[in-house]
Amino acid sequence: MATFIQTLSLRTRLRAALVLMLAVLVAVLLLLADSIIERGFLVVEEREVAERVTQVTNALENGLLGLQRTTIDYAQWDDTYAFVGDEDPAFIETNFVDSTFIYNALACVIMVNAEGDIVYAAWFDLAEETFVDPPPELTSFTGPYATLLQHRSVDAGIKGFLLLEDGPLLLAAQPIVTSLGEGPPAGTLLMGRWLDEAEVARLAELTRLDFAVYQPDAAALPDELQPLAAGATAEKPFIQIVDAQRILGATLLPNLSGTAGIVVALDLPRDVYQLGQTALRNYTLVLLATALLFGALVLVVIERTVLRRTIRLSQQVAAIGPHAPTVRVEALGRDEVGQLAAAINQMLQRLAAYQTQVAENERRYRQLIELLPDAIIVHDGRTVRYINSVGARMLGNGLPATLIGQPVAPVVGGLTPRPDGTPVIQEAALRCANGETIEAELVALPFSDHDTPATQVIVRNITERKQVEQTLRAAKEAADAANRAKSQFLATMSHELRTPLTAIIGYAELLEQSLDVAEPTEMRQDLGRIRNAGVHLLALINDVLDLSKIEAGHMQTKPSTLNVSQLLETVVATVRPLAQNNGNQLLVQHDIGLGEMFTDAMRLRQMLLNLLSNACKFTHEGRVTLEVRVLPAEAPDVPERLTFAVHDTGIGIAPDQIQRLFQDFVQIDASSTRKYGGTGLGLALSQRLAQLLGGAITVTSEPEVGSTFTLTVPRQTTTLGEAAPLVPLVPTALAPPSLGDLPGGESRIILIIDDDPAIRDLLPRVLAQTGLHFEAAASGEEGLDLAAALLPDLILLDVLLPGMTGWDVLQQLKSDPDTEAIPVLMLTIAQDTANGFMLGATNILSKPVEVERLATEVALVLHGQPTAQRLLLVEDDPDIRAYLRRTLVQGGWSVDEAEDGPTALKLLEQQAPALAIVDLMLPGMDGITLIAAMRTHPHGAELPILVVTAKDLALAEQEQLNQSVEQVMRKGSFRGDELLRSVRALLQRRTER
């Protein structure tokens, strides 16, 4: 076929191509027109049918609304309300006569009292205008019909269809209340009418549409409506084309009893479709006529402007040959054909010039081949056909001419390109003519030597490169070994780094608290710097160690069962001070009943703290929200997950910076680093920890609007609850004692020292309770005089006072033997809280202080502190043991110390402590063995145990500790106040049990 087409003339092929293109174009346009026009008319037809179905449905709905209004009218009569209670027959005889049913078009009226008993039921035949027997289904309201008597409120009624044995019934049910709409409902009033032929005829006349009503299981239901009866397309009007003349439109109306409803169907003529078919036929005729006319015109134009001139140009080009190289074609105008003739003439001129240039290039190519440092050899598999000077020196006597026709070297001759012409590259040891053996790279290429197939081989000396590669490989292996050694060093040094840092931080904190006012301020600041630097250094070391473990593949997760709600309370309580420092509101939203998770509690808490801390740090005077949701399992390989989304209204992140967030040691930009600080490890470490737990962290953000960081992690249990409202988070605490519940009915004196008259007036009013007497002083001097004279039970002291500051007043109070025992609550906007505690303040509250917080602190002071309890401390390091003992003593407990396991067991024999604090790395008997031995002792079976250790626990050790101790704290990751809070919480939990 292709050969036959090539034998045809250009004129014939153009005509055939034009006819074929016009035929294809007309066919495509006809197909498109048929598809577009017919689809458009079908859409219009379906829309019209849907509108007719909706019109009938609205008419039925209006009928239900009218029935409901009648029911509401009767249900809100005071007489109806009274009848349900006393069943006075005069009410029925007066209000429910034949005319009532005929006027309101009612088929039934039923009254049911609040106990579910029918107190009145009447069924009326509107056609015969006489009362009839009720259908058996509605002689009682039990089973599926019990829902007709259930209402959400006194004004909430029910309306709809009931599919009974006698046919569909339009029914409205309304609670019976007083005329003022007040409850409780005395019962339920039900009114209904049959959706029979008379009702259908009335609605058909009203809508001017003929429609039919079918029961889904009726034998008269057309076959076309069977899918609708099965409920497959009940969400929208059902449309079914019957033939070219008819189309069905229907809908399925639900039943109040919960079973299948009724089918409302319309049989309509297809006028719109017939109009579309007529338009399509007219379009086809016009298109065919236009195509024929257009084809004829195009053929005439092509013949006159292209074909004749092209044939003439072809004849002139054929006359040019090797015997007439100077012949040129004739210019045939200035259009494209004329430009083609000029281009042919220019091509002939360039060909003559190229022939001269090719000869010159050949000479240059041979010179270049001779100057290359690589050997080039052309062979036919047996003998050398060509060799350059480098090749002759490498394989022979240095003269290329003497090697032509000689047998090719086996290493070179055995290398040939692949059959498809692809070059072959190979490295081999090649022995040179001078006896030297070199490392060579050989490349074999296909070559044509005077139309004879041959192979061109390029030989490159790579001996020096191989030596360099060997040196680089050795250097890389040494670098990899050094990197592995670094990771191993960091992993093994974790315990040795954390233990001394714990002592540094602890002793700096104790020394700072023990300094009195006489010590130099500079020394106290230096000690504070030591503690802060130690805390910061420890955080950096922990992050780097964790990151190193992940990179080295040594990070182990330690899963355990945890309560999600308790974890949220702990995390929020930790982050709340940071949020308050920046004036942020901390909110939470979570599913009710979050249940438990089986995951690494420490790592999950670490990630949440990092995300919340970042949100609080980059948000000022805004809102930070923690939203926890449960994602149900989607597939066997996608289990149930929990998402922890942290939303903030902070500075936001630019889109081009989001991709850099999770890189190690990277901040979002230089300005944020200077303003907010940080190492850039937090998010990178959190992302890797999330991946270790089988989850991930994603982020969405908009500059100046805020950011959302979402942590998604899987869990094993399934607990899905309802969404809780968004409320401000408050830390969980015990309810404060009542201020008025004072022991023995004693009267207590509270002295207020504040220069603000509004505060002196406000505090007695908000704290006023029976048994409390308030005195006020406007200056420090006046406060000292009143304190010495009254000896109050409590002093509320402002810091910023005129003349003598609050710190000076506190110092004098604590230096006077008569007033040193008086508890003092400091009220201040200053940040130097440590100074107040060292001077002897009971507590320091930041202004503006919440009334509830102040009342709680006052109540705790007036009701006294709990009696001291005995604690058992087991720690082998004397410095750490002394730091922990002094911290616990300051918290109000007595401490028994043990440096090893046997000593601890002896102390346990002597007296049962309230709580034990145990290190795991002990001489002789390790901490886990000691805990197991304590659990077998009568004094240790129910003893709360708090583990304080610097050891990185293995998974088995973590699981064992989870079953035997209450809490594990890692050395260097907590401060003294955090230790005291944990001890108080464990003792409180034991007391509650």
TrEMBL record:
<feature type="coiled-coil region">
    <location>
        <begin position="344"/>
        <end position="371"/>
    </location>
</feature>
<feature type="domain" description="Response regulatory">
    <location>
        <begin position="749"/>
        <end position="862"/>
    </location>
</feature>
<dbReference type="Pfam" id="PF02518">
    <property type="entry name" value="HATPase_c"/>
</dbReference>
<dbReference type="GO" id="GO:0009927">
    <property type="term" value="F:histidine phosphotransfer kinase activity"/>
</dbReference>
<keyword id="KW-0067">ATP-binding</keyword>
<keyword id="KW-0547">Nucleotide-binding</keyword>
<dbReference type="GO" id="GO:0000155">
    <property type="term" value="F:phosphorelay sensor kinase activity"/>
</dbReference>
<feature type="transmembrane region" description="Helical">
    <location>
        <begin position="283"/>
        <end position="302"/>
    </location>
</feature>
<dbReference type="InterPro" id="IPR036097">
    <property type="entry name" value="HisK_dim/P_sf"/>
</dbReference>
<keyword id="KW-0472">Membrane</keyword>
<feature type="domain" description="Histidine kinase">
    <location>
        <begin position="492"/>
        <end position="717"/>
    </location>
</feature>
<dbReference type="InterPro" id="IPR003594">
    <property type="entry name" value="HATPase_dom"/>
</dbReference>
<dbReference type="InterPro" id="IPR004358">
    <property type="entry name" value="Sig_transdc_His_kin-like_C"/>
</dbReference>
<dbReference type="InterPro" id="IPR011006">
    <property type="entry name" value="CheY-like_superfamily"/>
</dbReference>
<protein>
    <recommendedName>
        <fullName>Circadian input-output histidine kinase CikA</fullName>
        <ecNumber>2.7.13.3</ecNumber>
    </recommendedName>
</protein>
<dbReference type="InterPro" id="IPR003661">
    <property type="entry name" value="HisK_dim/P_dom"/>
</dbReference>
<keyword id="KW-0812">Transmembrane</keyword>
<dbReference type="GO" id="GO:0005886">
    <property type="term" value="C:plasma membrane"/>
</dbReference>
<keyword id="KW-0902">Two-component regulatory system</keyword>
<dbReference type="InterPro" id="IPR001789">
    <property type="entry name" value="Sig_transdc_resp-reg_receiver"/>
</dbReference>
<keyword id="KW-0131">Cell cycle</keyword>
<keyword id="KW-0597">Phosphoprotein</keyword>
<feature type="modified residue" description="4-aspartylphosphate">
    <location>
        <position position="919"/>
    </location>
</feature>
<keyword id="KW-0175">Coiled coil</keyword>
<dbReference type="Pfam" id="PF05228">
    <property type="entry name" value="CHASE4"/>
</dbReference>
<dbReference type="GO" id="GO:0005524">
    <property type="term" value="F:ATP binding"/>
</dbReference>
<dbReference type="InterPro" id="IPR003660">
    <property type="entry name" value="HAMP_dom"/>
</dbReference>
<feature type="modified residue" description="4-aspartylphosphate">
    <location>
        <position position="798"/>
    </location>
</feature>
<feature type="domain" description="Response regulatory">
    <location>
        <begin position="870"/>
        <end position="986"/>
    </location>
</feature>
<dbReference type="Pfam" id="PF00672">
    <property type="entry name" value="HAMP"/>
</dbReference>
<keyword id="KW-0808">Transferase</keyword>
<keyword id="KW-0418">Kinase</keyword>
<dbReference type="InterPro" id="IPR000014">
    <property type="entry name" value="PAS"/>
</dbReference>
<keyword id="KW-1133">Transmembrane helix</keyword>
<dbReference type="InterPro" id="IPR007892">
    <property type="entry name" value="CHASE4"/>
</dbReference>
<dbReference type="InterPro" id="IPR036890">
    <property type="entry name" value="HATPase_C_sf"/>
</dbReference>
<feature type="domain" description="HAMP">
    <location>
        <begin position="304"/>
        <end position="356"/>
    </location>
</feature>
<comment type="similarity">
    <text>In the N-terminal section; belongs to the phytochrome family.</text>
</comment>
<dbReference type="Pfam" id="PF00072">
    <property type="entry name" value="Response_reg"/>
</dbReference>
<dbReference type="Pfam" id="PF00512">
    <property type="entry name" value="HisKA"/>
</dbReference>
<dbReference type="InterPro" id="IPR005467">
    <property type="entry name" value="His_kinase_dom"/>
</dbReference>
<dbReference type="Pfam" id="PF13188">
    <property type="entry name" value="PAS_8"/>
</dbReference>
